[in-house]
Design a protein that fits this description.
Layout lengths: L6 E2 L7 E2 L1 H8 L4 H35 L1 H8 L6 H11 L8 H6 L1
Antiparallel strand pairs: 1-2
Amino acid sequence: MNLQTIYYTTYKDTKKVSRKWILKFIKPLNDSEIFFYLKVLAKRWLEVDEIVKEINSRLILQAGQEDELERIYQSIPGIGPTASRMLINELGDMSQFKNEKGLFSA
């Protein structure tokens, strides 16, 4: 990617991010400042990435213990591995609910 490419700052924004915009943005900052903050953000990104990997590993282990429930929850459109695991952790097999009303009042 080169800085000549034009991007929008957000999906709603009409202001384009171009080489000129970036240079204007970083002009008040000296190089050591911007690299310091980029380094801090990169470290945070790596830390969060490791946490996400650990959570995913735990979810995979839990999912292996309850394959049938996992398949049932994931058969619902829009429910993937993470959401199905959360639902299983919260609701289990739903046998504790007598009816729909009991489920929604919980």
